[in-house]
Amino acid sequence: MAIERTLSIIKPDATRRNLTGKINAKFEEAGLRIVAQKRIKLSMGQAGKFYEVHKERPFYGELCEFMASEPVVVQVLEGEGAILKNREVMGATNPADAAEGTIRKEYALSVGENSVHGSDAPETAAQEISFFFSGLELVG
Ligand code: DAT
Ligand code: MG
């Protein structure tokens, strides 16, 4: 499998509880390398644009307000099959369905406050990485 890059976000529920280091350890233990990382506070406009794909869904407003409520850590993870591997390390969207040992099983508070975002396909990974990072900021 090819070396890929994927966009990860450590969400406000996790930054608030000082879980950035524990979550990063999960990525690194899985063989994912953090090749870019920054802590930022999203505006409502930025959160709305990032999650535009979900704009018709009933939870869109709540999702954007949550993502803009407190700082997030945005990062680029690199590795063999990184997109799928990250989704495995994250676990299912709803922590009630997440497998043992996954980030969401261990740390998520609810389906909405679920600690991490990860790109779901090569096209969205490329789009989402360029939403937050310039090429100069990616240091493999
Ligand atoms: P994922 O983050 O696993 O890719 P998604 O793309 O379907 O999941 O949804 C994006 C985010 O929207 C998700 O991480 C949390 C929120 N969300 C999804 N389904 C929800 C629901 N039923 N109620 C509240 N928030 C939800
Ligand atoms: Mg998604």
UniProtKB/TrEMBL annotation:
Q: Which domain of life is it from?
A: Bacteria
Name this protein carries in UniProt = Nucleoside diphosphate kinase
Q: Which InterPro entries match?
A: NDK-like_dom, NDK-like_dom_sf, Nucleoside_diP_kinase, Nucleoside_diP_kinase_AS
Q: Gene name on record?
A: ndk
Where does the protein end up? Cytoplasm
Cofactor(s) listed = Mg(2+)
What is the protein's species of origin?
Thioclava litoralis
Keywords recorded for this protein, A-Z? ATP-binding, Cytoplasm, Kinase, Magnesium, Metal-binding, Nucleotide metabolism, Nucleotide-binding, Phosphoprotein, Transferase
Q: What is its main location?
A: cytoplasm
Which Pfam families would you find in this protein's record? NDK
Q: How does it assemble?
A: Homotetramer.
This chain's function reads:
Major role in the synthesis of nucleoside triphosphates other than ATP. The ATP gamma phosphate is transferred to the NDP beta phosphate via a ping-pong mechanism, using a phosphorylated active-site intermediate.
Question: What reactions does this protein catalyze?
Answer: a 2'-deoxyribonucleoside 5'-diphosphate + ATP = a 2'-deoxyribonucleoside 5'-triphosphate + ADP; a ribonucleoside 5'-diphosphate + ATP = a ribonucleoside 5'-triphosphate + ADP
Name the residues annotated as catalytic in the UniProt entry: 117
One molecular function GO term is:
nucleoside diphosphate kinase activity
Record-listed ATP binding positions: 11, 59, 87, 93, 104, 114
